[in-house]
């Protein structure tokens, strides 16, 4: 199976950024473990701080991949463009958030992605990406 993880803005800082909320591990370390555990899956990873690049990546993988795991970070709550891209592609998208967005500020309770996602996983830390991966197996 071919699955892509897409991380949005500021998630390149994982490990350094607000560790009480997002943990102190880097995404690269986590990804290495995930790849070692799921050797049969072609697991790809893309991170961008730029909205249009996330949309371009969704278009690129959105018609011949088996799944997309998308943490659009702050764009989740603002981007109609990313929401439309998720709606427009064929590959199912699972939305992931590291933190429990519903236990945080009100503006994080809104998602432009969720209405067109296969499902949403939030509040389980980095483990959420593995749970999303398992949902495609
Ligand atoms: C996040 C939650 C968002 O509200 C926030 O803007 C992020 C990360 C999460 O994974 O918990 O950058 O998507």
TrEMBL record:
One Pfam assignment: DHquinase_II
Keyword Zinc-finger carried by entry: no
UniProtKB keywords: Amino-acid biosynthesis, Aromatic amino acid biosynthesis, Lyase
Residues that hold substrate according to the record: 71, 77, 84, 98-99, 108
Keyword Aminoacyl-tRNA synthetase assigned: no
Pathway in which the depicted protein is active: Metabolic intermediate biosynthesis; chorismate biosynthesis; chorismate from D-erythrose 4-phosphate and phosphoenolpyruvate: step 3/7
Gene3D superfamilies per the UniProt record, alphabetical: Dehydroquinase, class II
Protein family: Belongs to the type-II 3-dehydroquinase family.
Protein known as: 3-dehydroquinate dehydratase
Species of origin: Tenacibaculum singaporense
Gene giving rise to this polypeptide: aroQ
